[in-house]
Amino acid sequence: LFGVSRIRRNLPSSQAAAGHPNLSFCEGSSGWESKTVPLALHGDGTPVAGIGKAWSRMLDIFSWTSLVAVGETLDYTFLIYAAFTQLLTKTSMDTAWRLITWSFNILRSGVWPEADAFGRRYNDFAPLSKDAERVGSLLAGGYRACLFVVRGDLDYYAHTLGLRSHTSSMPCSWCPCTSTPGDPMNWREFRKQVRFG
Amino acid sequence: VLGFLRKYGRARFAVAHSLQSESVGRYAGNTLRDLNKKLGAAPLHEAAHRFRTPMKAELCGLHTTEREQTLLLPHVVFAVMHRDYPSEFKKKLLGPPAALEKFWSEMVVVDSGFALSWRHRTKPGYSQSLPEPPRTSQSFLEPPRAPRSFWEALGGSGRLWEDLGGSGRLWEALGGSWFCSVSPG
Questions:
Q1: Of residues A16 and B3, which shows the higher confidence score?
Q2: Contact of A48 with B11, CB cutoff 8 Å
Q3: A120 touches chain B (CB under 8 A)
Q4: A 149-188 residues with CB below 8 A of B?
Q5: How far is A172 from chain B (nearest CA, A)?
Q6: Predicted pLDDT of residue B185
């Protein structure tokens, strides 16, 4: 399709990012442009044992990168967590996600937190610890970072992030379209009588 | 995980490749040793995770479902890199000089927050520069209002549509009368 590559770049010109809480730091502050690092969080499962065999074992890997870094991918990709998919239960990732989101929230604020990921205040349960000592001080000399991109494939969005599955009857997390044949909101229906569009 | 990386496949290759330049010692390329050396200095965070017990472990009488797992928390890595590795911090997080300002300058502040603009790519008259597509039906000529609401359904406001002049050229360029024959709905 002619021009699709150019048009795709323009797709973000929608106001989907307007009022997003991850971008709230810019309101009322100045000079944040040179101190805020945009980040991407990537997650995916990859076979690491028995590749191509029935007993293949998958590893779910989560990593983050800076969106402005230049160089080899391995150089600026930072691992967060890896777990064998076969060992995960429905609640396995609860702790990991709590820690990961807590960490990214701290990065956005740019200061050391006053409580841990489970809401326990350092000054209460560990007043002599290093964590309690640095509460409220700058994390990295005034630099901070905000999560700007969540990278992954459709399987990761559906099964790990809990968004709508691309194989379900309502495949889109952005709009109420359906994939049911004959449904007025079917995304493949472009006749005049349909409601979608 | 470390044992696994040592023993198996692609992951081992990737890790070995990343450590290749720094591998020193009696046996160059000893991935496990190099990785341990690296992770030994890394700010690791331990937390209990609930896991399914492997069948073999269950047969051995182990029924523990909560295991301590290690995470490299992004904010700790960020802080440690800034404190202990300033040159790496600049190179791997801040990017080239003025890259941050350049990134954010491609954003435009709107009343309610932020919207990406990519102004340098959305030039006025952009739609006019697209070639004429072959016209196959009358419905193709109708300037569709529907695609605009299509954008709205996607969470946008039709801003791109306005930037492109509000004509049907974008959809024509997308190559299908099936796009342009959408009714206003």
A1: B3
A2: yes
A3: no
A4: 174-177
A5: 9
A6: 29
